[in-house]
Design a protein that fits this description.
The structure is a single chain. By secondary structure, the protein is mostly helical. It is built from 37 helices and 13 strands. The strands form 5 sheets. A 4-stranded antiparallel beta sheet has the order 10-13-12-11. A hairpin with a 4-residue loop joins strand 8 and strand 9. The N terminus and C terminus are likely disordered.
Amino acid sequence: MTTALPLLSGAAPDRTVRDRLEILTALIAAPSFDALFRDEIIQIPGQHPVFTWGCQVPQCERPGYEASRLCATHDRQWRSAHARGERKAVFLASAEALAAHQGFAYGRCRVCPGRPAHTRELRLCERHEHLWSVFCRDETATPDLEQWVADQSAFHSFGTCRVPACAELSVSPLGLCMGHRHRYNLEGRPGGATIPQAWRRIYEDRDRPVPVNIEDEPAYAQWRARTGPLFRAGQINLKMLRPLVRAEIQWGLFAHTQEADPGYWAITSIQRLVAVCRERGFDSLADADTDGEHHKIRTIARSLRGTLQVLYATPEETKEAGYIETEHFGRRFPRSASRIDLTAVSQPWLRDLLWDHLATLMRSHKCPRSRAPLDNARRACTELSAFLTIDAPSVGHDPRALTTRHAERFVADQRERERNGMPTLARPFRDDGKPSLVTPNIRRIVFNYSRKILYEALESGEADRIGLDRSFITAFPPGGEAQRVSRNPFTDQVARALADEANLQQFAREYDVNDRGLRDIWEALVLTGRRCSEVLKLRLDCVGRYHGRLPMLWHDQTKVGNYNEGIRIPERLYTSIDKRRRTTLERFELRNGRQPTAEERTGMALFPTEVRNRGERRSISHTFFHLQFKSWVDSLDLGKCVPHQARHTLATKLLSNGASLAHIRRYLGQVSDRMAEHYAKVADSEIETVLQSVWVSGPGAARPGELLTGAEPLSREQATALALDLSRRSTPAEGGFCTFQPVVNGDACPWKLNCEGCDKFVLSGADLLYWRRKQEQWRSIAERAPDDATADYLHQVFEPTARAIDGLERALAGLGLLEDALALDLRRPQDFYHRLWNTAFQTSDLADLASDAAYTSTTEEP
């Protein structure tokens, strides 16, 4: 939201208050503003969609507890019913509604509207209630209340309560309502205000004014001024607040209702915040200090201040004040406040450059999805600022005095801290308050972002405007690319420990005390190989059965832009997720007293958090799951393990059991084959050396498919000899190898590269999938032939190749390598051997290696 009126930074306090009030007054008077929040006395309905305070039992008039949303009586009844296994919706439908008895005004007298009712049952003022009781004691009278009320005359009103913060009617000439009269007596009657004991008979019945005797008028006035309003359920009394504070609370309450998933604000907490503002006389809630108050009051005040800061300050004013508001740019990062403090950067020129960089990021259509790039830029500038404060305190604030030497000393200091593991110069960035250490990654971030921000200033001309020397900017070196270190799969020992039933029960019992589904999340990660965020953000209706039996899981792969992707899952996982769905629905019913609607179900999370989650739409955070998982792993003494390793473990198992890299890439949602290549470390190393030792004759040979290297697996010596022989007598070709020596020596192929019809063409085990695809292609063409004769001709042409493929499969099956060959997906084998056939060695070096190898093999023999 943009600012309605810009405020001058140097405006006087009264001018600031006046301008702020003008902004809020215009917004509150707008047609889009909810009229419920316009009055001084805001009466919230008991079942308000955001500020709910009433009991969940239909028609019950009593306020409910914040936890159970039931009044005290129904809460006790529900605990007993819940222990018997009764559902909450059934309990609410059968529970008896109760009338209000505390925290509510009884309304006006039905005879004299100018006086308050004394009891809820009769709804008569004290005077008429007394007259009614006298009438009922008359044995000759018929006690018909309605008829009696119609015959009575109204008494004059005593006006509203003289306590300024109270809006209720007075019950006597003393000028106090019923509740404040009782409070006044309990507090010892400050000021000694009294009225005659028989004032009704002596004065009121004779239409004479009732005298009020006050012994100490200032003390009585002080008591009335400091006394707050009476507690009324669902009522927010804004009387006696400063005008700006009153408008701020009205606007803040309305703005809170406009949020997509507003947090729960208890009416009692809002009432306490209003009482604090009244007692301490705040001029503006935006500048109020509520640090010493209850944490619920601080939370509401902090949220209100965040809403107001967007209104009160323009982007230019936030720049001058040393912070930036993301909502000025229409951005709000997940699980993050909208205000980013930049005051740690003490040099104004550097802080302005940082602000401009962040503003450019948020204005861009490629704005980052998280706050990480913004925090990294702030970290870099904060570190540079801290260094300049220490190294050049006299010139650091003047960009014109900075030279190459300052930049070089900063670079040298960062590298020294990285080398020795020293802490950063800037204030701690860790949550525990400890200083961060300069790691290679932090040094890289500092260099890259410092350089980026300064070069942006150079390109925009801002560096010339402030007089920043170009040599100072160019002295910053690039930090380099981040080190991409792939995680290893779980070892067998770790995998068994993390899948042990006793350990899993411990994870659910000790580290998931509120039953948020941590064990179900972990098992889903292991069984599906999804990213952690993809499992955490699963929706309620993410599983289903198709074709009567197939269990499927539907999820979003937001990292790669794939939405509503479906994968088949094991029956065990389907059962656990289905059970978790029922648990989540029960939580929704416990919180709301009903089952969710169809529209609500589509937005509900499968693993909802307990924080600010009225509609069960927000999932538990990655941080929460990671911390609990880490504590569990530490208790098992397994070393350092992270959930993402489950993804690598599954990929490796898929490879070793015959899945191709292309299939794994598609299943796991990888962007490219390059991202999935590191999963092949363990699986490929077991098969790539032996697959290439299986050779059969090509389709053009006299006996297609004949095994050339024997029916038994080669020994190590035979494989080595064969590999050397093939490297001298063969060259890669499309779908296999050519053994025709002129072609091997570099001459042109006399058969014009007709490999399939050549008897010099051989196949390796790595070529199986290539030729199986060729076979499927020919069969597809034959099936689409216009007549049977054409189809028979195509089958006849491809028959030698088909026999070669069959022979290759039999050979691989005989050696137990058929499944491994199906797992190796090489569409162009010559590309696989590209480095081998283009790498040369010195003859003398090879001779020395051969001599060493011969000596080693001789000494190792028994």
